[in-house]
Q: What sequence folds into this?
């Protein structure tokens, strides 16, 4: 609900999405894919901060608002996901 209230453009995937579609599956995480524009990243980071969630990688999430930084992370580190 926090993502919706925060105006984040996202979809659910993984086990949670399966459960919502009626498949019995136990999962301990939530897989979220967001629209990758800078404004949406800013909204996501605001929600994550509000919830007290910290990134697993030693990266300030605010740096990911810049699309050039995101592209460099993919090209240089093969970073295709970011985990809170």
A:
């Amino acid at each position: 609900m926090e993502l919706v209230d925060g105006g984040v453009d996202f979809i659910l995937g993984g086990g949670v999405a399966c459960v919502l579609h009626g498949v019995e599956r136990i999962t301990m995480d939530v897989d979220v894919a967001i629209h990758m524009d800078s404004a949406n990243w800013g909204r996501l980071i605001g929600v994550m901060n509000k919830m007290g969630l910290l990134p697993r990688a030693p990266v300030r999430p605010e740096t990911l608002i810049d699309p050039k930084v995101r592209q460099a992370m993919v090209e240089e580190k093969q970073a295709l996901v970011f985990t809170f």
